[in-house]
Amino acid sequence: MSDLLANLNTEQHQAVTLPPQHALILAGAGSGKTRVLTTRIAWLISSGQCDPAGILAVTFTNKAAKEMLARLSAMLPISTRGMWIGTFHGLCNRLLRAHHRDAGLPQLFQILDSADQLAAIKRLLKTFNVDDEKFPPRELQHFINAQKEAGLRPDAVEAWDDYTRRRVELYREYETQCQRESVVDFAELLLRTYELLERNEPVRRHYQRRFRHILVDEFQDTNRLQYRWLKLLAAGDAASGTPGACLFCVGDDDQSIYRFRGAEVGNMRDFEREFQVANVIRLEQNYRSHGNILDAANAIIRHNSGRLGKNLWTEQGAGEPIRVFEAFGDSDEARWIVEEVQQLVREGALRSDIALLYRSNAQSRVLEHALFSAGIPYRVYGGLRFFERQEIKHALAYLRLIANADDDTAFARVVNFPTRGIGARSLEALQEAARTYNTSLYATVPHLAGKPGTVLAQFVRLIEDLRRDTARLPLPELVDHVLDSSGLRAHYKAEKEGRERLENLDELIAAAANFVAESQADAGALGADHALLADFLAHASLEAGEHQADQGMDAVQLMTVHAAKGLEFDAVFLSGLEEGLFPHENAILEAEGLEEERRLMYVAVTRARQRLYLSFAQSRMLHGQTRYNLRSRFLEEIPEPLTRWITPPKPRGSAATGFGGYYEPPRGAFSSRPAAPPAPVPPRKNTGGLQVGQLVSHARFGKGVIIAAEGSGADARVQINFGDAGIKWLLLGVAKLEPC
Ligand code: ATP
Ligand code: MG
């Protein structure tokens, strides 16, 4: 056991070996929070204080959960099988499957990911003839999820105006629809589990008695409902002699980046107060990053107010300066990144130790293109994830119908894909009838007469055949069979650009095989007809391709900054450091939004162990528009001595012709940061003295912030974010803008 604790500093040691009480570990990035949490689990078990079954650990991603299990198996001579370690969603899924009847769900209920949920909401609006301009589906989705995250069912939502009342009605109808289809969205997973635990005393007592230690990583990003869920599980009950569990939470208020999804740093304060946490431990030594990187992170986050206050230090040397590159355009930026990546690999770096991070998914395309052209293997986390690709969704829809025929989202997706002559009219008739009978689309088919009834009945027969023929097949063969018999394979074979899609479909079989191999360790789920299929489908919804980057060859990792949370890499490239992009234009207006962007920047910078590369482009193609942005204010917040600025050796005036004309300066010949910072683009005079980032007011739209500028003379225009009034391009010569 002493081995377990050998590599810990004094504070970490103290945290790992705390007596069984509630504790909060509040510490900055890279200070060993996750390591402490994992080691504590190992320590509790190996010192005989807790059985593996008595541990519940919540991580932020499935990848993190897997890593934790792998580390635990390395530290302990025990099987980690059956340990409750996972994400909130994963754990809730497990609980609901085990108690589906108590939770009012069929055993094979399906999970809607957020794209499925949006599709379901659109279908709902159509069914009820709701004007989707008045009730935009995305907003309604956000509204419903926000209510669920606040723990509110439709009856409990307070509605003071007609608009909200209508939204609440739609929320109610949405619930009915989901229940009828036996589907559960992400927020529902949590709320349903919470309600189950709250209302069902035997189930609650069972888990309260079972879990002695509850450990939560990335606690700063838990939302209210998750916090209440934890509170419920950790609570004891004097009457029945159930002692409460010990809650051990680790987090960093400076890395709270999910405010938009309802996460609340306030949970940390509430936790301290409500649980009378006697042990608050701070870790200040950073083991991850070289000094320059850490100093930059500290300097950036210092600009935020209301922090709980921490100061990170490291024993490691300053290391390399942070390289900052100013590119003419986004392609030049990507090319520079690729060249630096190649250099690192030549110097012996593993590609998987290199990460390319960006603020928005849309930025990955240019980077991917450059990597692809240079023949560098790469993998994208997030974005169009494997399980979100169209062909995979189609295949999954067939599988879902086999598991649960009442899943209308799946039904609507493939009833006429590949085309089998079922027109919009037939579908409308079916939907109409489904409303009348209050049954699922599938169950309504027999009620339909005439030609639509005949064609649809054929589809139903196809699904029934699939279900019968696959009942005894191992999962990968089942998937293979469905790909053929559904006609999906033939469809994509006939498609001109279908090759990649066919490869992806084969990959789905591989994913199924992989899933079987992994879950065999956890054999409980096997056996019952199609039960493993339901588990696989849940895995597909929950994991959404996270694991794809784990396997196969050594590849450069691409992901958004959000997805990089908790991870670390030897070298990190952070591109697109431009006003409007990072900080994001939607966040510039309010101070709170800006602070969240800064925390995101802090997360990005602190992912790097040895090298950090920052870059921005004078012009960028995004969403089909060329934008001219100024470099991000976050760059200005990094003290100059920590950086080395690299500019392509071209006169600035040639920017317009500079695309593709960039060449890499010989290594070692990088210029230092120029004495004068690069001129804003376009030059100041074009914007009549106004600058990007400046607050201005407009007679009609009110106050806004300039987020981009372009053109000159009579054509000079600025783009302004007016908050509620939207984002507008205005001609300077025409619009009367007042600085304020
Ligand atoms: P984040 O806030 O980014 O999630 P964290 O606080 O969870 O970071 P860890 O990921 O646990 O930090 O640790 C960062 C790195 O430092 C890891 O590589 C970890 O193995 C290493 N580390 C932590 N503590 C020590 C230690 N006492 N000695 C050596 N290395 C350590
Ligand atoms: Mg961590």
From TrEMBL:
Keyword Hydrolase: yes
Region called Disordered, residue ranges: 670-689
Catalytic activity: ATP + H2O = ADP + phosphate + H(+); Couples ATP hydrolysis with the unwinding of duplex DNA by translocating in the 3'-5' direction
Stretches assigned to the UvrD-like helicase ATP-binding domain: 6-290
SUPFAM superfamilies on file: P-loop containing nucleoside triphosphate hydrolases
Enzyme superclass (EC): isomerase
Record Pfam families: PcrA_UvrD_tudor (PF21196), UvrD-helicase (PF00580), UvrD_C (PF13361)
Coiled-coil region: none
Residue intervals of the UvrD-like helicase C-terminal domain: 291-566
Database matches in CDD domains: DEXQc_UvrD, SF1_C_UvrD
Similarity annotation: Belongs to the helicase family. UvrD subfamily.
Descriptive protein name: DNA 3'-5' helicase
Organism: Thauera sedimentorum
Native organism taxonomy: Bacteria, Pseudomonadati, Pseudomonadota, Betaproteobacteria, Rhodocyclales
